[in-house]
Specification:
Elements (H helix, E strand, L loop, with lengths): L1 H14 L3 H24 L5 H30 L1
Helix pairs in contact: 1-2, 2-3
C-alpha cells in the first residue's frame, strides 16, 4: 500500500529533477529489497527471478544516484 504512494512520488520528484527524488528512490528500493529478501529467505514464496531482478534494479539505482544528485544540483544552482 505504501509503495502505491511512494513509487509515484519518487517518479514525480525525479521527473522534476529534485534531489529528494534520488534520496526517496534509494530509500524505497533498499527497504523493498530488505523486505523481499527476508520473505524469500524465511517464507520462500517469492520467485528467485523476482528478487534477483529487483536487486539488479537496485544496483542501477546505486550506480546512478550520485551522478543524478550532482546533475540535479547543477540544474537548480544555475
Amino acid at each position: 500500500m505504501t509503495l502505491t504512494i511512494l513509487d509515484p512520488a519518487t517518479a514525480v520528484l525525479i521527473i522534476c529533477r529534485r534531489r529528494s527524488g534520488v534520496v526517496l528512490g534509494s530509500a524505497v528500493i533498499v527497504a523493498d529489497i530488505a523486505v523481499n529478501w527476508t520473505v524469500f529467505a524465511v517464507v520462500g514464496e517469492l520467485s528467485y527471478f523476482g528478487v534477483i531482478s529487483q536487486s539488479l534494479f537496485a544496483l542501477l539505482i546505486v550506480v546512478t544516484a550520485r551522478p543524478l544528485w550532482r546533475w540535479f544540483g547543477q540544474m537548480h544552482d544555475a
